[in-house]
Write a structure and sequence with these properties.
Its main location: membrane. With 438 residues, this protein is mainly alpha-helical. The chain is built from 18 helices and 5 strands. It folds into 2 domains: 187 residues, Preprotein translocase SecY subunit, CATH 1.10.3370.10; 241 residues, Preprotein translocase SecY subunit (Orthogonal Bundle). A hairpin with a 2-residue loop joins strand 2 and strand 3.
């Protein structure tokens, strides 16, 4: 406790870091306040409340703004969708590959295209959002006027959320976009805990303690999965420049066991609602359709979780393949005079790295699938539906990832000012500054 208090004092004694933390808190407060501002022309008393299914997942990310018919009702989700589309285009379209290689000018051009695509996606999603989530009884003005004004406000709200995320990244601490998602998820945690405590009552105190005990170890496991890396040793050849010797050091390239992050779960979660949607269309004509609809609408059924887990494993391999390029890593190493001991530079090095990625991706994908279906096991064990969402899945992975990234940034500020770090060793495990950048 004494070391913790000392670390907090050190953090707030650094003026730049203190200002960044205050800025971050201020931007997050603005974001949370905006989630309670209802679209003009809507009677909030007529809203149906919490959403279910994929809408419930989005509502969790937005901290209730989705179900509140807020001006931030779509939040930064259209921006994330646009970023994913651009990322996939960068892999398969030569024009975007060229932009990516043009350095700063190329990145600015990609950012401009991402913003335009975000506006288009927001307009498209806004129409579906208004029709699907806002009952006609809750609309107090004409439908045409409400649709027009709401699309403008939802688009403006999304762009404002993007601006908040960029300002957090620039003037705050942590990744702004990820921080906005995390604060939306965390805002649901107090209500979930309170609901679980009330539902268990005094008679279920022991069961409640066991639930928190299990949750602690689940969080520890997710942290281990998020931070686990396979270090590839890299030896740099000695070079004499101006009478000085450079290189000759052994460094490491960290390859993450879960290099794809939460994207496989997001992709799989989106597709898991397709069978139930199709079955709903044909439900009146087929018993099989009724069976499929009821099965895939139940997140605790073994069929749902089996298909969900298999899709996550497949998407993990797919996403890792398009985001981690062994040939590019090997080429960068060769250009910088680096080589893996015992492996020839060039194509053999690329094959060596590719084999390592393939070997660690399989256990990583299986563990990621297990984390994704943990909420289902929690619900089967008797944990409340809302509280069970924090036993795994996208919510927990995002929370852990953002918190660890923020702690790394705070750690770097402390070490730069010659303060003792947040860990006893003075360096957080897997700090990127400890490794070679290939």
């Amino acid at each position: 406790m004494k070391k913790f208090i000392s670390t907090v004092k050190n953090i707030f004694s650094i003026e730049d870091l203190r200002i960044r933390i205050v800025n971050t808190i201020g931007f997050l407060v603005v974001f949370r306040l905006g989630s309670y501002i209802v679209l003009p022309g809507v009677d909030p008393n007529q809203l149906e409340g919490s959403s279910e299914g994929i809408f419930g997942l989005i509502d969790t990310f937005l901290g209730g703004a989705f179900s509140n018919a807020s001006i931030f009702g779509l939040g930064i989700m259209p921006y994330i969708s646009a970023s994913i589309v651009l990322q996939l285009l960068t892999v398969g379209v030569p024009y975007f590959q060229k932009l990516q290689k043009e350095g700063e000018s190329g990145r600015k051009r990609i950012n401009q295209i991402t913003r335009v695509l975000t506006i288009l996606i927001t307009l498209a999603q806004g129409i579906g959002y208004i029709k699907a989530t806002i009952p006609s009884d809750a609309i107090l003005v004409s439908q045409v006027l409400f649709m027009f004004s709401s699309l403008i406000l939802l688009t403006s709200g999304t762009m404002f959320c993007m601006w908040l995320g960029e300002k957090i990244t620039e003037k705050g601490i942590g990744n702004g976009i990820s921080m906005l998602i995390m604060i939306g998820i965390i805002s649901n945690l107090p209500g979930a805990i309170l609901g679980e405590v009330v539902s268990k009552g005094t008679s279920g105190a022991l069961l409640l303690i066991i639930e928190f005990f299990v949750l602690f170890f689940v969080v520890v496991g997710v942290v281990a999965l998020t931070e686990a890396t396979r270090r590839i040793p890299v030896q740099y050849a000695k070079q004499v420049v101006g009478g000085k010797v450079y290189g000759g050091q052994r460094q490491y390239i960290p390859i993450k066991v879960n290099a794809s992050g939460v994207m496989p779960i997001i992709f799989a979660q989106s597709l898991m609602f397709v069978p139930a949607l199709i079955a709903q269309i044909w439900s009146s004509e087929s018993d099989i359709a009724n069976y499929i609809g009821s099965t895939f609408s139940n997140p605790t059924s073994w069929q749902y979780n089996l298909v969900f887990a298999l899709m996550i494993i497949l998407f993990t391999f797919f996403y890792t393949a398009i985001t981690v390029n062994p040939e590019q890593i090997a080429e960068d190493m060769k250009r910088n005079g680096g080589f893996v001991p015992g492996v020839k530079p060039g194509a053999p090095t690329a094959d060596f790295i590719d084999n390592i990625i393939s070997r660690i991706t399989l256990p990583g994908s299986v563990l990621l699938a297990l984390v994704a279906i943990m909420p289902a096991f929690a619900m089967i064990a008797g944990v409340g539906n809302q509280f069970a969402q924090f036993y795994g899945g996208t919510s927990l992975l995002i929370m852990v990832g953002v918190i660890m990234d923020t702690l790394r940034q705070i750690e770097s500020y402390l070490l730069m000012r010659h303060y003792e770090g947040m860990m006893k060793s003075g360096n957080m495990k897997n700090n990127p500054s400890n490794y070679a950048v290939a």
